[in-house]
Amino acid sequence: MNRVSACHWFALVAVFALVSGCASQPDIRVTADPAANLATYRTFNYVQPLGTDREGYESIVSGALKDVTTAELTRRGYRLSDTPDFLVNFGARLDDKLRVTSTPVVGPPPIGYYRYRRGFYDPWFGYNDVNVDQYTEGTLNIDIVDAAAKRLVWEAIAVGRVNRRDREKLPAVVREVVPQMLAKFPSAGGGPPPAPGAQ
User: Between β-strands 27-32 and 151-161, what pairing exists: parallel, antiparallel or unpaired?
Assistant: First the structure.
């Protein structure tokens, strides 16, 4: 697998694993250009190629993201057009993370990993129990770009721990996370976003 293919496969896994059932939901942040007048937008299309595409063709994850995003924007009154007011782009990545926490040891003998010490010896006064948590963090971006100015005007970012799931569940994961990310994106004409599930 070459570097480009590997990057796009990891991007697919990042989106694929952002939502993990009963696990913690992704942290979603939204930023907007205060100078942009989103109320003037009525039509949209997609950047070509998308940030989640494979080299030379549309990836599975790009297709799923486009389907759900088109449905969400259509619910808000926007129309897909060859002469769009704004363009949509996606980005995804994985990052290995390491979290180290230190806790003073007081009270009863150690349990867990350090139970092998029990009954033989205790740590010195002031000893800290160090825990290392290694995990993978996935990030998904949805960018809204002014088509005429070619300038980013609105962005949603979802960040969450990655848990691998079967590839068959990818469309369901995308259907869950994209509406959350677009929840604050206004309706066409600047109206408020529709209620979740509203047509």
Answer: antiparallel
